[in-house]
Structure formats: structure tokens, C-alpha cells
Design brief:
The chain has 246 residues and is of the alpha+beta class. The chain folds into three domains: 2-64, no CATH class; 80-163, OB fold (Dihydrolipoamide Acetyltransferase, E2P), CATH 2.40.50.140; 167-240, K Homology domain, type 1 (Ribosomal Protein S8, Chain: A, domain 1, 2-Layer Sandwich). Helix content is 15%, strand content 28%. Helix 3 runs antiparallel to helix 4 (233-240).
């Protein structure tokens, strides 16, 4: 693959790279997309263009094009998101994921769900899902991703599904993606001091739950403060949890 330009910053519509036939490149972040009609995160045989003002990085077969401080989420197939149910339409739920348009979640898009035995979500419920399609309209699914073990939704052991209780906070998409990265140690460092559950969506939504409300709020405040000052997360964590990283 050859880079089309060496500019440090790309404007919307500007070509970032050309992917030859036979080579597959993975697009990470919401700041870039294939130039053709396909909107898959894995692309080959076409150009990759910027969809926002980005500073793209090419590394190990992938293009990372995150738009710093972007709050308007742009859905891409395969993205993991946290959303809120805003309407129920019988066999379908309308979910807000922070994008320009609402997303649709089929009531049967859960492992083991049927017309008789399916989750019954209510308006205001939070869900952890992945983007199944984002071509014409955004469709979500709570079924297991390909290559992972599928568990019946009734067991509550699956990766995706409804999120009970807890607290939902909103940050920038760029920060959420950095937390979602397996190389990030932010949640691990906080977890040394307090036990908590977390679901991170690349759409800038984070769901948190601990044993009590006050602790949940403290963890949320700590994460939001780290989002404001990403240059010194360790110092921020010590402010809320003094015994961490000692």
C-alpha cells in the first residue's frame, strides 16, 4: 500500500491512502472511510478518504484516523457502541447512539431470542451492541461477534445486551476509543482500588456500575477528569483514589 500524501492533516474528502487489490487495510476511528459505496472497516482495491479533519496514522496494516474531540459519532460497521432506547416499535427498538440519525435494534437480534422468548426493553434502557450495518440506515445487533462464543440472552453471560442500573456518561469519541484500546491501562488502574463494571462504546458513551451509587459517581468523575486532561491520567487517578499506583 502506498500513501497518497504526506500531509500531517487531511481535510474531509481528501485522499489518505490507496489500497491495491489483494491488500486489506483496516480502518480504525470515525475519521476515514472507503471512497466507494462500501462502508466496511476492512477494505481493499479502493481509496481511503478523510470524513473529518484528521491526522491519519498508518501502522501494521491499519489506518487510524480519529477526529480529536469529535462529539458527533459516525457509525461504521463493526463498531461497539452503548446506546439508549428511545422508542419501542413492536419487533424493533429505536436507539440513540449519538450519531446524526437514530439506530434500529431488532428485538430478535439477541442470541437465542425468538418471537415468544425475547428481551423486552423499555424506553430509557441502556444497551451494549455492535453496528451491523451503516450503509443506508444504522442497524444494531446484540448477537455475538463472528469468532466469539454465543450465549443465550437469558443467561446474562453474553458480551452484548441490555445494561441494568449503573450510570451512563458521555465523553468525546476520541477519548472513548483510547479507553477501548487494549493498550490502555486507565480502567485497570482504577480497578486496583475499586471493583466496577464498565462497557465502553466508541461512540463516546461509557456505562459504569459499582456496588453503590456514591462509588459509581466517583469513578465516573475520575474518568471524565481524565478525558479533560489526558496528559496526566495517573495524577488524576491519585486525586480520586490516593492508594492507586503507589
Amino acid at each position: 500500500m502506498r500513501m497518497s500524501t504526506k500531509l500531517s492533516c487531511c481535510l474531509p474528502g481528501e485522499k489518505i491512502a490507496l489500497v491495491p487489490d489483494g491488500d486489506v487495510i483496516r480502518i480504525v476511528g470515525g475519521g476515514a472511510a472507503p471512497a466507494g459505496r462500501k462502508r466496511d472497516r476492512d477494505t481493499t482495491g479502493e481509496s481511503v478518504i478523510a470524513t473529518h479533519v484528521v491526522v491519519p496514522v498508518l501502522d501494521a496494516g491499519r489506518i487510524t484516523a480519529s477526529a480529536p474531540h469529535m462529539r458527533r459519532y459516525v457509525p461504521q460497521k463493526g463498531d461497539v457502541v452503548v446506546g439508549v432506547v428511545v422508542r419501542s416499535l413492536g419487533l424493533c427498538y429505536v436507539v440513540s447512539i449519538g450519531s446524526a440519525h437514530l439506530a434500529m435494534l431488532d428485538a430478535l437480534a439477541f442470541d437465542g431470542a425468538s418471537k415468544v422468548n425475547k428481551p423486552r426493553l423499555r424506553v430509557g434502557d441502556a444497551v451494549f451492541a455492535h453496528v451491523l450495518s451503516s450503509h443506508l440506515s444504522t442497524e444494531l445487533s446484540c448477537c455475538a461477534l463472528p469468532g466469539t462464543e454465543a450465549k443465550d440472552w437469558t443467561t446474562r453471560e453474553g458480551t452484548f445486551g441490555s445494561l441494568d442500573g449503573g450510570l451512563l456518561i458521555t465523553t468525546t469519541c476520541d477519548f472513548a476509543r483510547s479507553v477501548f484500546d487494549e493498550r490502555s491501562s486507565l480502567l485497570d488502574n482504577i480497578g486496583r482500588e475499586v471493583s466496577f463494571e464498565a462497557c465502553v462504546g466508541v461512540n463516546g458513551k461509557l456505562w459504569l456500575r459499582t456496588s453503590n451509587v456514591s462509588t459509581t459517581i466517583t469513578v465516573a468523575r475520575c474518568i471524565l477528569e481524565c478525558a479533560k486532561d489526558g496528559s496526566r491520567p495517573d495524577e488524576v487517578i491519585r486525586t480520586f483514589f490516593p492508594s492507586v499506583l503507589q
